[in-house]
Amino acid sequence: MKIAGLWNNHDCSFCVLDNGIPIIHAELERYIREKEPKGDSYKFFKEICKNKKIDEWITAEGCFTDEHTFTTDCYEIGHHQAHAANTFFSSNVKESLIITIDGGGLDNGEWTSTTIWRGIDNKIHPINI
Fold it and tell me: 62: alpha, beta or left, given left = phi > 0 and alpha = psi -120 to 50?
C-alpha cells in the first residue's frame, strides 16, 4: 500500500491517496467557512490526520518550504496539474475532461493560466492544443 499526500498551499487543501485512490480530501475554507484563506496545507493535514503515515508528498510548484522536515520522498507538480488532480480525485467520475482557468501559475517552469487534462481511473494526462 502506498499512501501519498497531495497538497497545495495556494488554496490550503490536501488529498490523501491510497494506491492512487483518494481516501481523504479536505479544504481549509470548508472547515473555517472563510473564502480562500491563506494557510499551510501541511500543517492543516497534520491537524486533521494526526497519525497518518505518508509514503510520499506531492505539491504544486513553489509550495515546499524550509519550515517542514520531510522523511519521505517529495515531488513538485505544476500549479494547474495540482488543480486538475484536486478536481478529478475529489469527484466520483472514472473519466473526465478537466479544464483549469485562473489567474496563473507555474507549470513545468512556465507561466500558464489555462490548461486541459484528461482524467482516466486514477491518472490525469495533459492535453496539448
Answer: left
107/80 Cα distance (integer angstroms): 7
State how far the Cα of 14 lies from the Cα of 37, in Å rounded to an integer: 14
Cα–Cα distance for residue pair 103/52, rounded to 1 Å: 33
- Which sign does the torsion angle of CA 104, 107, 112, 116 carry? negative
- The confidence score (pLDDT) of residue 65 equals 64
> Grid coordinates representing 100?
483549469
pTM score = 0.69
**Residue 128: what residue type?**
N
Q: What DSSP string describes 11-37?
A: TTEEEEEETTEEEEEEEHHHHHT-SS-
Q: How many CB atoms lie within 10 A of CB 22?
A: 19
